[in-house]
Amino acid sequence: MLNKLSAEFFGTFWLVLGGCGSAVIAAAFPAVGIGLLGVALAFGLTVLTMAFAVGRISGGHFNPAVSLGLAIAGRFEFKDLISYWVAQLAGAIFAAAVLYLVASGKADFAAGGFASNGYGDLSPGKYGLTPALVIEIVMTAFFLIIILGASSAAIPAGFAPIPIGLGLTLIHLVSIPVTNTSVNPARSTGVALFAETAALSQLWLFWVAPLIGAALGAIIWKALLGKD
């Protein structure tokens, strides 16, 4: 089990450091900032690269919602759920701490939102609670459907990380303006601890919505899509 939990720790660490790091450090870099498209691609690349690197060890969840969805779909043992969540949260928090240590070395650094998720005044596009809830549920549900389909027996072995990484990129392209895109409670928790906004007070939504979405995605797959 230690090797599985280590894989989840490092996979989630890389997701937060690479994805949130691209937003905090590179997105608005003068003249050559990567912008929304670059941040979306960065999140997809973190999952793609670590799924290839350690997915064979732990299943490559890197996300408490994904672990829950896979358990509901019968692809993961419920008894291992809490230990996976702990490893994922630890990886996310440690990555956020490393990112803060690096980013705060800049002379005019201000943490601000620190790539955290939010709604209302904390939404990049000033979207309210209801659209934030809906987008996070729907996007997480489709993320689970992509994961379950891409990792099914009908797909040639070894290809799953590609559609999963591209799927996460697409999710970010759509939903960054609404919530700054979570679909991952660990990712949301790690950076919220270092934000200078009220991100922690809104963190509940980025646990509740992804978990609901993951459960829905798994149920839809089992009931409608995963049968011959």
TrEMBL record:
The gene is aqpZ. GO terms for molecular function: water channel activity. PROSITE patterns: MIP (PS00221), PROKAR_LIPOPROTEIN (PS51257). SUPFAM superfamilies: Aquaporin-like (SSF81338). This is Aquaporin Z. Keywords: Cell inner membrane, Cell membrane, Membrane, Repeat, Transmembrane, Transmembrane helix, Transport. The chain crosses the membrane at residues 7-28, 34-54, 82-103, 129-150, 162-183, 203-225. It is found in: Cell membrane. It is a multi-pass membrane protein. InterPro entries: Aquaporin-like, Aquaporin_transptr, MIP, MIP_CS. The keyword Isomerase does not apply. The keyword Disulfide bond does not apply.
